[in-house]
Amino acid sequence: MRGTAQRAWVAGLATAALAAGLTACSGGSGEKDERVKACTDGTYAWSGVQRSEKLVELADPISFEKATSSYSAELKPVDDTVHRVTVSTAPEGVDAAGVIKALGRHLKVEEPLAGPSETWTPEEQGHYYEAAAGDYKGDYYSWGSIRLVDADFTYTCGSGDPVKGHVATWEGTGTGFLPCASDPLDSPAARTAALQTCPAGSPAAKDA
Hints:
By secondary structure, this protein is α+β, with helices and mostly antiparallel strands.
């Protein structure tokens, strides 16, 4: 009798669960969950996309009085700014990481954009830029940069109200080392570095 009663109880639970599922699909207590599930496949409209490069690290002026085949330049943070990845509003059914991935697809980036948990902190950055191949002589400059991305979005899903938000992230970071005797790169960070560290009148500083 106990086994029969237990099977009957399990069967009753299964029937109740089925009824609850039918209620959810028709707008009961599970309505929100169904709406969230449906909203994972919404569409984005991007606007106000801005991609910029910022100087974040700079070496002291570098000068080689005679030819050398190696160098070591300490890159120091230029200020105390901390860069954080932010998504002002993540639509229901889509987390911040999903919004950032969608922006990456829109921009057709080769590498993933920085994710929600990433930060760029000056205290963690100071390092040396080193190389041991070449023939260096004269004045040089070295720098570090970060490539920032800002964008507004409107996320539309089904018949629900559009969700508007903003994303701040970055494409990556980089470093550079160039002679002051050469023309500056087409790079805001490189040009700023040249102006701050190359001798006045040098091609890199003059044309920056």
